[in-house]
TrEMBL record:
This is Cytochrome P450. Signal peptide: none annotated. SUPFAM superfamilies: Cytochrome P450 (SSF48264). Transmembrane segments: none annotated. InterPro entries: Cyt_P450, Cyt_P450_sf. It holds the Pfam family p450. One of its GO terms (molecular function) is oxidoreductase activity, acting on paired donors, with incorporation or reduction of molecular oxygen. The lineage of its organism: Eukaryota, Viridiplantae, Streptophyta, Embryophyta, Tracheophyta.
């Protein structure tokens, strides 16, 4: 088993010192992602630009538009 080095960053803790809000934070993040995917339309600013691993690491410019709810 790999040991955790001293002063290591563990976002929600581990073992007995685990944050009581970690499950709430996970669900809240999932709700935000759901809203972003269902209520908004995402388009590339440069439609013909190929998407690759390299372009994703440098950033991919997008335009986010609110979908019509009617």
């Amino acid at each position: 088993m790999k040991t955790i080095p001293p002063f290591a960053y563990i976002p929600y803790g581990a073992g007995q010192c685990m944050c009581i809000g970690n499950e709430f934070a996970r669900v809240e993040a999932l709700v935000v992602i759901h809203c972003l995917l269902t209520e908004y339309e995402w388009r590339q600013l440069i439609p013909d630009e190929p998407i690759s691993h390299d372009s994703m690491s440098k950033g991919l410019p997008i335009n986010i538009i609110v979908r019509n709810s009617m």
